[in-house]
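Quick one:
INPUT:
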């Protein structure tokens, strides 16, 4: 459906991974070998936290309905700034119109959210899902996507206090509502959340056949494996990415995130926790 990338580590120019990598996010917007759609040209978004950001820091965002490969402002911005934590997303619209309010990542205070996938049967469930959003949050829904509603459901169900619990309750509600509407496998996708210090990357689908998700191996290990690759010297030892598909062809550089798992990327690196384990295929 879409492709996304999340980076955490030493501050760097986002263009190094969004535009300049061998299989950069912009390259994937033109040719996505592992995606449900080969081309993701229905707009894009970029959200970043300032240098020195911590949990609670306020991010900036930039969205465009242009294809990512055709918007020179993306190059200008990602060359001009440095950031220690940023998210970027290229969109393949699954029905909702191509408009800026439908481009990821979505923002709520210090939080950024993006999604690759779909809520199957969203048209039939839309009223039930949307009306379950807390009334104080409802006015903040600006677009028409299932992804933005899912984000606000997670906020309603406690994401600010416990991101994993909030997302769990939101997905459980989507699946329960789907069953009530006769939809067998409502939830599909990968999700990225960030609060300014930590990234949570979820991989889950009701059917147990989720969209692809990978994370990079740590830079010191990669530099030891590939001492003659000069590009690796551009990154600090804490630089890490979570991506819909690998950014290069170096064997062993990326690890696939398992099904029904949340990969948590914090200052100490990655660790996994189960997510909706055993709740999928029926």
């Amino acid at each position: 459906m879409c492709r996304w990338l999340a980076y955490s580590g030493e501050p760097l120019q986002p263009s190094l991974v969004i535009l300049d990598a061998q299989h950069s996010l912009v390259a994937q917007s033109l040719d996505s070998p592992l995606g449900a759609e080969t081309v993701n040209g229905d707009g894009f978004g970029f959200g970043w936290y300032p240098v020195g950001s911590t949990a609670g820091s306020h991010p900036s965002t930039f969205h465009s309905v242009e294809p990512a490969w055709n918007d020179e402002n993306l190059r200008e911005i990602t060359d001009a700034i440095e950031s220690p934590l940023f998210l970027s997303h290229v969109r393949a619209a699954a029905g909702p119109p191509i408009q800026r309010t439908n481009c990821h990542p979505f923002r709520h205070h210090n939080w950024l959210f993006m999604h690759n996938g779909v809520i199957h049967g969203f048209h039939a469930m839309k009223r039930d899902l949307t009306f379950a959003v807390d009334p104080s949050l409802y006015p903040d829904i600006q677009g028409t996507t299932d992804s933005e509603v899912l984000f606000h459901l997670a906020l309603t169900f406690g994401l600010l206090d416990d991101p994993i619990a909030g997302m769990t309750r939101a997905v459980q509600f989507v699946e329960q509502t789907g069953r009530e509407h006769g939809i067998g496998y409502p939830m599909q996708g990968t999700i990225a959340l960030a609060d300014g210090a930590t990234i949570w990357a979820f991989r889950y689908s009701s059917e147990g056949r989720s969209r692809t998700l990978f994370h990079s191996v740590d830079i010191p290990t990669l530099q030891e494996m590939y001492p003659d690759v000069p590009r690796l010297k551009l990154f600090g030892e804490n630089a890490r990415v979570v991506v819909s598909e690998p950014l290069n062809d170096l064997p062993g550089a990326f690890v696939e995130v398992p099904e029904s798992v949340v990969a948590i990327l914090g200052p100490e690196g990655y660790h996994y926790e189960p997510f909706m384990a055993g709740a999928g295929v029926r």
